[in-house]
């Protein structure tokens, strides 16, 4: 019964030592992943590694494993060797100093401890460059093998310089357990490193995919009007063409060039950063200006704009704000059939300004709604999808949120919310 309780006690302390080490490893990668400072230079990573590994190194000595009345053990060498293998001299020497100072303060000076850990520091640091060149699987094997060899070397050194007794419990807990613990910790480290690497590659691939889509979109959309211009310019070279026909061709060519310019402007608006000029916007006034600009366009489509605008103020850029809602309301007009209406409502509550644009148009399917805002996706025959993309970009730059709902045959509703500017 006593042996069972003793074994449980020992196992609990072994797990506690492992817990200290693993938490420090997870904390290291948490800070490394979230704090850009530690990603900039190798020296910053070394400082972080020393700080994170020195904590479990001290805790393992403070709360050791009591194997027998005359045998106390801990896993301090595990964080020490992990730091040595991964950081080399830059990490091993500071960790050695921290280990020896903490050991002397807790248990007093002992020459065997100094000799053993200086030997581990020298051998581990010399092994570090080779270790870092190995593959993931090779590191697992090499770390366990090197820890085992260092444990054997430490035992030989201890026997050589003092009257040291090698017992059965010493062989298990000082020679066999540490290599297994190091193998386990290195496996965790390599798994975390691989996960960060895979995520980094995924982000790069996603960015490249976006760039390739935009490049394909630009070439596709610009090539169409330029092809038209090229065709009509070739027709104008004919000798028997009349002045009236030549003027007609010229007007068509100019219209296509203007269309190409509009597409380029939309892309530039999406790509360039938000302007520094931030001002107080009176939402109802800015929307009235947009609606006045679009009324002739709406009349041409036979669409009526119905506005219900309550006074509200917010911070933003007036030009971008007008461009955003010019695109949204214009899309609603183009989607609405002759005799339909487009409703523009603006109101404010305690913290937000809400603007709702609703049309009585043909609406969108769930598949089309899911792709809303993507480049060169549009439900219009000659649409590029850039207007919606630019509007979403502007809303987000002004710290706004948006929500769109649509039903095929029943129209679309776009709800945009901005932070309210409280008048002082």
From TrEMBL:
Localization per record: Cell membrane
Stretches that traverse the bilayer: 14-32, 44-66, 78-101, 107-128, 140-162, 174-192
Coiled-coil residue windows: none
Main subcellular localisation: membrane
Domain Histidine kinase: residue ranges: 217-422
GO molecular function, one term: ATP binding
Reactions listed under catalytic activity: ATP + protein L-histidine = ADP + protein N-phospho-L-histidine
Record protein name field: histidine kinase
């Amino acid at each position: 019964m006593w042996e069972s309780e003793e074994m449980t006690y020992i196992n609990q302390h072994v797990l506690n030592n492992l817990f200290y080490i693993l938490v420090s490893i997870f904390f290291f990668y948490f800070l490394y992943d979230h704090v850009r400072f530690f990603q900039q230079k190798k020296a910053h990573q070394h400082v972080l590694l020393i700080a994170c590994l020195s904590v479990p190194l001290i805790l393992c000595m403070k709360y050791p494993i009591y194997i027998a009345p005359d045998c106390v053990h801990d896993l301090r060498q595990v964080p020490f060797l992990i730091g040595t293998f991964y950081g080399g001299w830059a990490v091993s020497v500071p960790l050695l100093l921290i280990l020896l100072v903490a050991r002397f303060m807790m248990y007093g000076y002992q020459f065997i401890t100094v000799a053993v850990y200086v030997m581990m520091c020298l051998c581990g640091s010399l092994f570090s460059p080779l270790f870092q060149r190995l593959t993931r699987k090779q590191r697992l094997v090499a770390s366990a093998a090197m820890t085992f060899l260092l444990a054997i070397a430490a035992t030989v050194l201890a026997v050589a310089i003092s009257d040291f007794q090698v017992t059965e419990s010493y062989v298990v807990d000082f020679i066999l357990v540490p290599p297994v613990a190091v193998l386990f910790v290195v496996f965790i480290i390599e798994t975390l490193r691989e996960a960060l690497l895979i995520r980094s590659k995924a982000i790069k691939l996603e960015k490249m995919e976006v760039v390739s889509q935009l490049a394909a979109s630009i070439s596709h959309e610009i090539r169409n009007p330029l092809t038209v211009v090229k065709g009509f310019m070739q027709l104008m070279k004919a000798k028997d063409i009349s002045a009236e026909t030549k003027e007609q061709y010229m007007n068509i060519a100019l219209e296509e060039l203007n269309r190409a310019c509009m597409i380029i402007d939309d892309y530039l608006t999406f790509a360039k950063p938000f302007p520094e000029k931030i001002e107080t916007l009176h939402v109802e006034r800015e929307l009235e200006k947009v609606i006045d600009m679009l009324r002739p366009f709406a009349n041409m489509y036979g669409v009526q704009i119905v506005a219900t605008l309550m006074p509200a103020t917010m911070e933003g850029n007036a030009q971008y704000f007008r461009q955003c809602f010019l695109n949204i309301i214009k899309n609603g007009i183009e989607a609405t059939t002759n005799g339909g209406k487009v409703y523009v409502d603006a109101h404010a509550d305690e913290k937000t300004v809400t603007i709702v644009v609703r049309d009585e148009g043909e609406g969108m399917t769930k598949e089309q709604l899911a792709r809303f805002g993507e480049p060169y996706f549009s439900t219009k025959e000659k649409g590029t999808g850039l207007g919606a993309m630019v509007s979403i970009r502007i809303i987000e730059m002004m710290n706004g949120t948006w929500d769109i709902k649509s039903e095929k045959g029943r129209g679309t509703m776009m709800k945009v919310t901005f932070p309210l500017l409280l008048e002082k």
